[in-house]
Structure formats: C-alpha cells, structure tokens
Amino acid sequence: MLKEGDKAPAFTLKNAENESISLTDFSGKTVVVYFYPRDNTPGCTKEACGLRDVYDDILAKGAVVLGISADSVKSHAKFKEKFDLPFHLLSDPEKEVIKGFGAWGMKKNYGKVFEGLIRSTFIINGNGTVIKVFPKVKPAEHAAEILAIL
Questions:
Q1: pLDDT tens digits for 60-70?
Q2: 3-class SS string, 32-55
Q3: pLDDT score, position 131
Q4: How far apart are CA 64 and CA 122, in angstroms?
Q5: Taking the domains of the chain in order of start, what are their residue ranges?
Q6: What's the confidence (pLDDT) of residue 91?
Q7: Which of 64, 85, 91, 132 is most buried as measured by Cβ atoms within 10 A of its Cβ?
Q8: Which residues are catalytic, by number?
Q9: In whole angstroms, how large is the CA radius of gyration of the chain?
Q10: Going by DSSP bridges, is the β-strand pair 88-91/12-15 parallel, antiparallel, or unpaired?
Q11: How far apart are CA 11 and CA 18, in angstroms?
Q12: Predicted confidence band at 112 (pLDDT cuts at 50, 70, 90)?
C-alpha cells in the first residue's frame, strides 16, 4: 500500500458517464481517492452517501473526490443515480489502479481469508504526492475523518 510521501501513480479510468478521467485532470487540486469493494452494498453505500453529504464542504476546501472499484461503468451509473452521488466513480475492472495503490490484498470476512479490494483512502496534494493514507476505513465515520484532514 502506498505511504504518505509516495508519489501517486498516474491513471486514467472511465467514469459512470463513460468519460476518461485522469488523476492529472486535477493537477494543483487536492484529490481524495477512495477505493471501495462494490456498488450498492451496505458499507459502500454508507461510505458514498457520507461523502455525498459533506461534498460541498470538501469542495470548499479545494478538494475533489474520486471513488474507484472494479465494478463496471454501467454499475457505477446506476449506483451514482440511485444515491445522487456528485463525484466521479471510476471503473477499474482490470484492477491495475487498485493494485498500483496497494488497495488489493488478503482480507478476512466471517473467518474466511480471501483476496479482495481493501477499503482504503488516499489524500493526494496538488503535486501528486500522497499526504494521508487511511488503510482501514470504517464507512460510517470516514467522511468526517477526511474533512478533519482537509
């Protein structure tokens, strides 16, 4: 997993509107990149809606939010519309960006160990440097944690 002080890997992924979005599109801005396992699941919905509810505050601090999962563009479009999410949801079906940030690895759920997406968030400054890492996110309080850092 990337650490604070690391350079964020450059990437370009498709959003829910099937447009190509690159990290470099936000040069000079603080970017909150959050990785989440699946659209329309309880924890991921709670996390996304929490970010939605404070999005104006995030924008006021000069930051933007990018959500990334391996879900399809079509799945993201439905999720975004259903919950009125104002930020980009990016599709990484090949998991290249997910793995590049170190958000893929061994997880444990109900005693079962498996490989999967690790719910994590990276705050990247305008120069592309990671300034804060949340390696294990609790969906309910995460939006407040992000605002406190910004």
A1: 999 999 999 99
A2: EEEECCCCCCHHHHHHHHHHHHCH
A3: 97
A4: 12
A5: 28-149
A6: 98
A7: 91
A8: 44
A9: 14
A10: antiparallel
A11: 15
A12: confident
CB 137 within 8 A of CB 119: yes
CATH of domain 28-149: 3.40.30.10
Burial of 61 (0-12, 13-18, 19+ CB in 10 A): middle
Q: Sign (positive/negative) of CA torsion 140, 63, 66, 134?
A: negative
Q: How many CB atoms neighbour CB 150 within 10 A? A: 16
At 57 the three-state DSSP class reads helix
Task: Report the distance separating Cα 112 and Cα 28, nearest Å.
Answer: 42
Question: What is d(CA 125, CA 123) in angstroms, rounded to the nearest whole number?
Answer: 7
CA gap 35, 105 in Å, rounded? 13
Tens digits of per-residue pLDDT, 10-22? 999 999 999 999 9
Name the residue type at position 78.
K
The DSSP element (H or E) to which 120 belongs, if any, is strand 120-124
